[in-house]
C-alpha cells in the first residue's frame, strides 16, 4: 500500500447481503460494506493506514499476510490470506 492512497479490494463470493457486510482485515473491521445486487461481490476500500487504537497517529500498514473474512446476518466466511506489500 502506498502512503496516502487507499487500496481497492474486490471480494467475490456468495451470501453477501445488500447493505450490511463487515469485512475483517487482520484485526481491523470495516462495517457497512455494500454488496452488488447479486450478493456475490464486495468492493472494499482499505485505508492507507490502519485505524489507531492508542490515540497516536496511525502508521502505514506493515507488509505481510493478513486474514480477510466477511460477516453478516447470514454468518461468517472462511478466512483467506491477503498479502500486503509495503510501498517502496
Task: Summarize the model shown.
With 88 residues, the protein is mostly beta strands.
Beta-strand percentage? 35-45%
**How large, in whole angstroms, is the Cα Rg?**
13 Å
Q: Which oligomeric form is depicted?
A: single chain
Please tell me what the overall shape is: elongated
Mean pLDDT comes to 87
Q: Any overview of this molecule?
A:
This protein is an all-beta fold. It has strands at 7-12, 21-25, 28-33, 41-46, 64-72, 75-76, 80-84. The strands form 2 sheets. Strands 2, 3, 5, 6 and 7 form a 5-stranded antiparallel beta sheet that branches. It has a two-stranded antiparallel sheet with strand order 1-4. Strand 2 (21-25) and strand 3 (28-33) form a beta hairpin. The relative contact order is 0.29.
Tell me the layout of helices and strands.
Blueprint: E1 7-12, E2 21-25, E3 28-33, E4 41-46, E5 64-72, E6 75-76, E7 80-84
Antiparallel strand pairs: 1-4, 2-3, 2-5, 5-6, 5-7
Amino acid at each position: 500500500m502506498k502512503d496516502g492512497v487507499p487500496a481497492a479490494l474486490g471480494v467475490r463470493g456468495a451470501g453477501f447481503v445488500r447493505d450490511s457486510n463487515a469485512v475483517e482485515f487482520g484485526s481491523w473491521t470495516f462495517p457497512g460494506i455494500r454488496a452488488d445486487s447479486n450478493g456475490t461481490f464486495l468492493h472494499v476500500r482499505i485505508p492507507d493506514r490502519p485505524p489507531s487504537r492508542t490515540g497516536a497517529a496511525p502508521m502505514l500498514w506493515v507488509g505481510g499476510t493478513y486474514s480477510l473474512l466477511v460477516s453478516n446476518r447470514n454468518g461468517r466466511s472462511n478466512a483467506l490470506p491477503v498479502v500486503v506489500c509495503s510501498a517502496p
